[in-house]
C-alpha cells in the first residue's frame, strides 16, 4: 500500500477527529453535568455518552472531509 494512500488519509482523519471529539465531549459533558446538577453516578454515564457522541460525530466529519480532499490533486 502506498504511503499516502487515500485509505490511510481517511483512517488518520477519523482517528484524529475521534480524539479531538472525545476530548471536547469530555470537557463539555463534565461542564453540562455539573451545570445541570446531574446526581451521583449518573454524571459518569452522562459524560460518557457526551464523549462517545462527540467523538463519533467529529470522527465522521473529519473522515468525510479527508475522503473529499483525497481526490484532489494540486
TrEMBL record:
Keyword Mitochondrion: no
Alphabetical list of InterPro entries matching this protein: Romo1/Mgr2
GO cellular component: TIM23 mitochondrial import inner membrane translocase complex
Subcellular location as annotated: Membrane
Main localization category: membrane
An annotated GO BP: protein insertion into mitochondrial inner membrane
This protein's UniProt keywords: Membrane, Transmembrane, Transmembrane helix
TM stretches of this protein: 12-34, 46-68
Domain of life: Eukaryota
A Pfam family recorded for this sequence: Romo1
Family of the protein in this entry: Belongs to the MGR2 family.
UniProt-recorded name of the protein: Reactive oxygen species modulator 1
